[in-house]
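cron nightly-structures :: item 1 of 1
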Amino acid sequence: MTRYLKNMEKEIIIDNQLDEVARIALFIEELGMSLQLPASITMSLNLAIEEAVTNIIRYGYPSNKESEIILRTSVAPGMLVTQIIDDGISFDPTAKETSDNVQSLDQQLTQGLGLFLIRRTMDKVEYHSTDNHNELILTKNIDMDFKPEATLKTNLCQIEEVTILTIEGRLDTANANTFNTVLQPLLASKTPNIIVNCEGLSYISSSGLRSLITLQKSVMQHGGQLVLEAMKPEIRKIFDMTGCSGLFTVR
């Protein structure tokens, strides 16, 4: 289960099973795309988090107790913080020294290759433990500043009988309600003919897709036409992956 929390926080809960680790890669890929992170940063995050979660599953639950692991990410100016929370056996990875001067692969494996990779890819590693759970905090410095809230700009203009809606920025959970407010006069139109200019759209989530689908249904019910145009390839890919491309006229 993936949940969107306040501001730029995001959370996924997985079962403590190794076949669940694949879901983490999808979670991190979506995170990297939504934040427009460089591929190298996304790869580092994926590597460190996968190593950490795999170690927790393998060594934190020797009796195969069924449980859940929480992965939570948050963004602050200049850094991305990942919290990994579990209720398995306590283990402090920060207490185990990992040398950068390992001489052989065998030595790396015996000294903890997973911990070595986590420390090399993350800028800060912290660990806290209580009677009920363990919390591993991984911090990655990112060479860009993020505003605490996603930005979205819209503009409506009328050219004869056609309404042009221009979208710029991110259309996601954080600003879906604002976008829906912009759509209200369009939903009330009797014979709407709408062109949505997506040239400036940098990211769209399922919440944004739902808003556009609602608009499309309203337009069709009133005998109008909705056209999406000038999508970036990465935005079109999201429409294709979700099967939404067939619901719209895209040009």
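cron nightly-structures :: done
The helical segments are 21-35, 39-60, 105-111, 113-121, 176-187, 206-221, 233-242.
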